[in-house]
Amino acid sequence: MYFKNSVAAIIVIFAIIFGAKTFFSGLIHVGYDDNLTLAERIQPFGQVYLEGDIDVNAIKAPVKTAAKARSGEQIYTTTCASCHSVGVLGAPKFGNKADWAPRVKRGIADLVKVAITGTGAMPPRGTCMDCSDDELKAAIDHMTK
């Protein structure tokens, strides 16, 4: 009886192994090209150039184009409104003169400085990391009116 159970277990194990081998051998290897040579398959993604190999002055740096400044309303709508529309954690509400009055007394330059560095629960730049200082100023002007 013991021998029959052992043989049956071995047959089941071999069947599982054969089934798995058959299943996985039919899968397509994504990104693998059988026509590449070994040297082409193991080459590094980047290339290193030693001094004198190429003329470094011939390589041009990407030209940064000036992005069009967004309006204060655009900055408010995309970034500031999530907190300032309802006053999350004491944030002064949009258009609420009473909330903004003590802050406006300090001056717009101070408000921009606080917006850049963050204060209380407000993170630096109010999470608008791609906002310029002028765009932040425009957003503050938009919220205080």
Can you describe this structure in just a few lines?
The protein has helices at 2-25, 38-41, 72-84, 97-105, 108-117, 133-144.
Name the helix and strand elements from N-terminus to C-terminus, one letter apiece: HHHHHH
Largest sheet properties: none
Could you give the distance between the termini? 91 Å
Number of DSSP E strands: 0
| CA-atom Rg in angstroms | 32 Å
Secondary-structure-based class equals mainly alpha
Mean pLDDT: 78
Low-confidence stretches: none
Q: What characteristic shape results from the CA principal axes?
A: elongated
Strand residue percentage: under 5%
| Helical amount | 40-55%
Number of alpha- plus pi-helical segments: 6
Report on the structure:
The chain is mainly α and 145 residues long. It has helices at residues 2-25, 38-41, 72-84, 97-105, 108-117, 133-144. Helix 3 (72-84) crosses helix 6 (133-144) and helix 5 (108-117) crosses helix 6 (133-144).
